[in-house]
Amino acid sequence: MMTAAASGHTVWSRAGSTGVQIGVVMWWTRKRSKAATVQPALATATVAPGAAVPAVPRDEHRNAFILMGIGGGTLAVFGIAAIAGIFAPVFLAFVLTICVHPLRLWLEARGVPRGLATGSVILAVTLLLVAFGYAVLIAIGQFGALLTDFSDEIAAFGQTFEDWLTSIGIGADEVSAMFADFDPSTVVGFLGGLVGGITGWVSALVIIFTMLLLMAMDAAFLPHLHRQLQPIRPLVVTGFVNYGDNVRRYMVVTTVLGLAQGIINWIALLILQVPGAFIWGLLAFICSFIPNIGYFLALIPPIIFGALSGGWPTVIAVVIVYGVINGVVQSVIQPRVVGKAVSLSQTITFFSVLFWAVVIGPIGAILAIPLTLLVRLLLVDSNPSMNWIRPMLGELDETKQIMAESDAESKAARAERRASKGSGAGRGAPAADRGSDA
Asked: What's the whole-number mean pLDDT along residues 140-151?
């Protein structure tokens, strides 16, 4: 039985075995429920062959959401750049904590108390940072002395380069303006100011050591936090665990291979009698953390000082040594050891180096891969609806399989065409012979 209510609503009652059900359905509720059932119905509907495929309604606000996301990301980037002096050392401490976390697990698994395990982790990282800082200070001191010793040669090289620029058609006035203010001693002054700005370095080290202490203490709760959050947010927990494993594998492998690369370069430059061999070996180690362009940054200084000391034969030898070492380490060994830890395309890797170097400074180029992996974790790995974008980011296992199948199909098609052409030529030959006999 149906009746009309005074408010304009439709009210009905239905008698049944279980009683009377009374409902009120407003006009906008009916309209909304009808629109809500369109997309599921289209998703489950089967279309007959040859029939027109029904149009799926698109989200009218999708472009607005994209623009809002881009705007929010832009604000976040500018915010990170504004606090780069804090963000860079904090994130470096975070990466170091991830790298030494297995040491804590190993000690606790053997019955070492948590407090002692935390102290051991902090001590290990502190020793590594102190050793690296000491090596950097030695290298800076040697570099200053090296520039002082080769100031005349550098000035002569600059004059030769100026003459060469003039000979190829660049105006003498422009060349003179380029080299007018060049003085090798100014580089020594710059290094002195760099070392003299000890306040900034001390502040960064205080932040790093403080965050290492706090993060190492909080890391004791990490396994239990994962166990607590696993039933609620399993995808997030899995993403963070994979992120830690991937960052740890990448940083540890890059550190070991970079150290080997720097030592080999140091020994090779000593044999070639290139001045400042220790400096350039340390530079090669640091630049090994910079994907794609680190090799070229590490190659330029030994080429210059090799040219000043030994001429073109030394330059060619340096290029060959660096090329062989870099090709073996970064193109053969590192991809096999790292594996799928860094599933990023070459384009994204190179752009990430430039991007993070602009946002947080030179250390951003060194931490570009961990930072980019963190962004991928937040936007893709923890969002199941974004799995479609993984191949575009660099996870190309399935794409390579499809490419191999496509290449096999193309190869089979070419072979079939060649076979058909050969059989056609064979059938045409007897006809020509019969014509000649006639």
From this structure: 79
Task: Confirm if 216 and 107 have CB atoms less than 8 A apart.
Answer: no
Name the 3-class secondary structure at 214: helix
Answer yes or no: are the C-beta atoms of 74 and 359 closer than 8 Å.
Answer: no
At 254, list the tokens. Answer: 């890059």
- Element at 25 (helix H, strand E): strand 19-25
Mean pLDDT, the chain, whole residue set: 77
How does DSSP classify residue 110? Answer: T
Rounded distance between C-alpha atoms, residue 158 and residue 140, angstroms: 23
Q: How far is CA 302 from the centre of its chain?
A: 28
The letter for the amino acid at 28 is: W
CB 192 within 8 A of CB 137: no
Residue type present at position 349: T
Alpha-carbon torsion 91, 92, 93, 95, what sign?
positive
Task: Pick the closest to residue 100 from 238, 213, 206 (CA basis).
Answer: 213
Spacing of C-alpha 60 from chain mean position = 34
Q: Using pLDDT thresholds of 50, 70 and 90, give the confidence band for residue 372.
A: very high
Task: Tell me which of 22 and 147 has the higher pLDDT.
Answer: 147
- On whether the CB atoms of residues 97 and 215 are closer than 8 A, the answer is yes
CA–CA dist 388, 406 (Å, integer): 21
Closest C-alpha among 124, 84, 89 to residue 103 = 124
Beta strands in 26-85 (DSSP E): none
- Residue 115 token pair: 């407090």
Q: How many CA atoms lie within 13 A of 198 on its CB side?
A: 5
Tokens 């680190």 appear where? Answer: 294
pTM for this structure?
Answer: 0.72
Residue type, position 418, single letter: R
Residue 13 pairs in a beta bridge with: 22
DSSP character at residue 11: E
Asked if 85 contacts 362 with a C-beta cutoff of 8 angstroms, the reply is no
pLDDT at 339: 66
Q: Tell me the residue ranges of DSSP E strands in 99-178.
A: none
Cα separation values, 292 from 61, 313, 347, 394, Å = 39, 26, 10, 16
d(CA 433, CA 438): 9
* pLDDT at position 65: 82
Greatest mean pLDDT among 189-193, 202-206, 224-228 lies in 224-228
